[in-house]
Design brief:
The complex is a heterodimer. By secondary structure, chain A is of the alpha+beta class. Chain A is built from eleven helices and four strands, in the order H-H-E-H-E-H-H-E-H-E-H-H-H-H-H. Classes of the chains: A alpha+beta, B alpha/beta.
């Protein structure tokens, strides 16, 4: 059995070496596509991280006084504020976030910047009401109506702050995804073609194998493995590229931009298995498709 | 060992253009027989050989080889069938990058035989075909007759029940051909069924074995201890 596996592996490596130019083209093409794919995934993660969990749900955040800059809100005032908000016809839903919840979310958000977390006291972050509006453009009604409400510290229009940023990053991410997709298809076609060339170059050997009764998988596996190895090389390269560049960029940005959470090494490492899977998967698929007709019984 | 029952095979060359390669052919070859299949080009010899190896399927009729009905044989079982058959071709089909020993060992490696089995069996077969002194040579360093001996060794190394030979002497001069025929005869005497398609009249006449003659896809003669043609 080990002799057979040695044969399969040797054949795969011999194929890669014999076709060195094609192999280089395949590996680079997989690298480019998976780097783009990984970058767009990381960008999504960055956006998710930077825009808190409320952003899709609420338009208005009402921060509540905790006694630092204004007299702390009393439980009765809090109750009254909630009742008033819920009574407004333009309000669809009201969520409450306690100081403890705010701190938990903060530590999760800035998990890559522990020094920042250290400087923040657990009770420094204000509690808030998060408000979802029936019509998002009605922010001014809430801002004007509740700014003077006792116990209200500040009212923020979430939409205005984040909408443009979100729209911009979504465009960048989608563009990267589209290019990654096209490039991945190109890589797949290139792999299929390479495997077909390899199979053609070894057609005599293949036909002898068929005649003496070698199993189909035994005939095909070296070729499929050849494609998969190239795909995995490409995936490893793209992983290395992202690992070498993304944390360096985001760590620098985290220093420059205050109070914005950034992804870092853990997120880049986490995307690796996905890249490897995508590289190996697309290569295996292309190889099998390329061989389906070529090596028929 | 081999049974064809009312086998018909046609090839389509166009919408209304069909060529009948075999027409209601029924043949039975028993275990250990030596059979020549003769006939002019286009008589259906090659088609007959391809049906036996499952490279082609008949349109009608049934083909049985080594106890297996090829019509109902699943494609993943075709490799197992081919292990029961050894193939010898006019053009040898040796792998040019492997030497004699490796070419023969290859047939054992790819069906998963153990290293020890291979090391025991290959020299034995090389000796049987009389090429043991050339074990390290590459195919292009050998004469045609020697190459054909290697290809027979490869066909025989896995102990197939049947040896199919498609014009094995087609590229060889008469003297060399006689040597090859002696070798095939010796293999046949070990109990291996040999089916040989050929044009070579002298060989058929001198061997005096069973002859099946095809003409336009029909069996026109099936004669034990036959000669190439009626008038030959």
């Amino acid at each position: 059995m080990s002799a057979r596996w040695r044969y399969i592996l040797t054949e795969a490596f011999v194929g890669l070496r014999r076709n060195l130019m094609m192999t280089v083209a395949v590996v680079l093409s997989v690298t480019v596509s998976l780097t783009l794919l990984g970058a767009s995934l990381l960008l999504s993660e960055q956006v998710d991280l930077a825009t808190d969990e409320w952003v899709d749900k609420v338009e208005v955040t009402i921060f509540l006084c905790d006694g630092r800059t204004c007299p702390a809100i009393t439980p009765e005032q809090e109750q009254a504020l909630r009742r008033e908000l819920e009574a407004e016809p333009i309000v669809e839903e009201v969520f409450y976030e306690s100081k403890q919840e705010a701190y938990e979310r903060f530590t999760e958000l800035f998990r890559n910047q522990p020094s920042l977390i250290e400087t923040v006291d657990p009770d420094i972050l204000p509690a808030s009401f998060r408000v979802k509006l029936v019509d998002p453009d009605q922010f001014m009604v809430i801002a004007a109506g509740f700014a003077a409400f006792p116990g209200v510290e500040e009212i923020i229009d979430q939409q205005e702050v984040l909408e443009q940023f979100l729209r911009f990053t979504a465009i960048v991410r989608n563009a990267a995804l589209v290019v990654a997709g096209i490039q991945l298809i190109a890589a797949g076609v290139l792999i299929a073609n390479t495997i077909r060339v390899a199979a053609f170059a070894r057609r005599e050997q293949t036909s002898v194998m068929k005649l003496v009764g070698a199993n189909n998988w035994y005939i095909r596996l070296p070729f499929v493995l050849e494609g998969v190895l190239a795909g995995v090389f490409g995936a490893l390269l793209s992983w290395g590229l992202l690992y070498g560049s993304v944390p360096a960029i985001t760590d620098q940005l985290a220093e420059d931009i205050e109070l914005m959470p950034f992804i870092s090494t853990p997120e880049v490492l986490a995307v690796g298995p996905l890249l490897l899977g995508a590289g190996a998967g697309i290569a295996a698929f292309s190889s099998v498709v390329a061989l389906r007709r070529f090596l028929d019984v | 060992m081999i049974t064809l029952m009312n086998v018909t095979k046609t090839y389509k060359r166009g919408a209304n253009d069909e060529v009948v390669a075999l027409r209601e052919v029924s043949v039975e070859v028993g275990k250990g027989e030596f059979v020549f299949v003769v006939g002019p080009s286009g008589s259906g010899k090659s088609t007959l050989m391809k049906l036996l190896t499952c490279e082609q399927a008949p349109d009608q009729g049934e083909v049985w080889v080594a106890g297996k009905n090829l019509r109902t044989l699943r494609s993943w079982k075709v490799p197992a069938l081919r292990r029961e058959i050894g193939f010898v071709f006019q053009d040898f089909k040796l792998l040019g990058t492997k030497n004699v020993r490796e070419n023969v060992a290859f047939a054992m490696e790819v069906i998963g035989r153990s290293r020890r089995e291979i090391e025991r069996r290959v020299p034995e077969v090389l000796e049987l075909v009389g090429i043991e002194d050339k074990a390290g040579a590459l195919p292009h360093e050998l004469s045609g007759g020697q190459q054909q001996r290697v290809s027979i060794a490869r066909a025989f190394v896995n102990d197939p029940g049947i040896l199919l030979c498609d014009e094995p002497t087609g590229n060889l001069d008469p003297t060399t051909s006689v040597g090859i025929m002696k070798l095939l005869d010796r293999i046949n005497r070990t109990g291996t069924t040999v089916v040989m398609a050929t044009h070579d009249q002298h060989i058929v006449d001198s061997m005096r074995r069973r002859v099946i003659e095809l003409e336009d896809g029909v069996v026109v003669r099936d004669q034990s201890r036959g000669v190439y043609g009626y008038t030959g």
